[in-house]
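How a chain folds remains the central question behind the approach discussed here. The record that follows shows the chain in one-letter code together with its fold in token form:
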Amino acid sequence: MKLTREKIKGFILDLFVGGTDTSAITIEWTLAELINHPKILLKAVQEIDSVVGKNRLVEESDIPNLPYLQAIFKESLRTHPDPNHWENPLEFRPERFLAEDGSAKGQLDVWGQHYQLLPSGSGRRSCPGNSLALLVVQTALAAMIQCFDWKVEGSVDMEEVPRMSLPRANPLICFPVPRLNPIPSL
């Protein structure tokens, strides 16, 4: 196959569209779970406040020091759980990814070595933007948790549409209420 300028542009566009769509869907699902589980959201807020503080915005370099946030992220990627691999698989419980002392469990990752948690594929068929997406999505989610309280009218519908990236059947309608005054700038 000859790579023309148009084909190269098409490949690049596919990468950008694929990356933004799946990242946005992941953030939307995770935020919906957090709104439905206010105690988990509060624990994430407390972790971010204790590690980052309220005077600066969370950064990518903070993510390794936020094990509970990482556990929330992994738990949100654990869609369509197999009861053969997960205890209480329908329960949203980030603690399953933490050691007894609250640190991250090192033995379970999303890189294709543990087939019970494989959100981005494995090997030659894995997502080419996985490294970037994992960091960007967690950082964006951390900033959304750090800077805002999230309010909804009524309950959050958790119905999904059966497609490749499992989008929500209905968009998440929520209202950000600033929790930091002023909100730290970039």
Summary: The mean pLDDT is 82. Strands lie at 148-151, 175-178.
